[in-house]
Design a protein that fits this description.
6 helices; 154 residues; alpha+beta; 44% helix
Length: 154
């Protein structure tokens, strides 16, 4: 069962927003949901930067990549940086990769891996995978709410 992290909290609002985004994911979207990488674009490998544009291409992204690509967290500082091979890396306040993810959602390493790592799920692609990540985020939110309520009741 998920627990509060070292600091005693997670960013519930951001996790909730991500769950909503993932629940709304449909396979026909421009992005393919794939937990195998933060994000990658076949088109981008040819030199075309697709960041900030919506178009049909062979673009894949995991939950965090989808969060970066969606723009809903841009105002909060979450973005992705593209490397020369077409891979995307999440960025937040000068941090990148897992450190950016942990800082943005206020998660510890175990929580971040449990929520977002490919090996934490049986299904890793498509709508079923997006729904699985959303469901796990919802479980974490319920556990967080319960823990907060228990602390307040003491």
């Amino acid at each position: 069962m998920p627990q509060l992290n070292r600091q005693g909290w997670m960013n519930r609002e951001r996790l909730e927003q991500l769950a909503i985004l993932l629940e709304g994911y449909r396979g026909g979207n421009a992005l393919r949901f794939d937990l195998q990488s933060w994000g990658v674009s076949e088109t981008q490998r040819s030199g075309f930067l697709w960041l900030g544009r919506r178009h049909a291409c062979d673009t894949a992204a995991c939950a965090v990549g989808l969060a970066c690509r969606s723009g809903i967290f841009a105002e909060d500082g979450l973005c992705c940086d593209a490397d020369k091979s077409g891979g995307l890396t999440p960025m937040y306040r000068g941090l990148e990769g897992w450190n950016a993810v942990k800082s943005f959602f206020d998660l510890d390493q175990v929580q971040a891996v449990r929520l977002f790592a490919e090996h934490s799920y049986e299904v890793t692609e498509g709508e079923a995978a997006a729904r699985a990540v959303a469901a796990r985020i919802r479980q974490v939110i319920v556990a967080l709410d319960t823990a907060v309520q228990e602390r307040q009741d003491r």
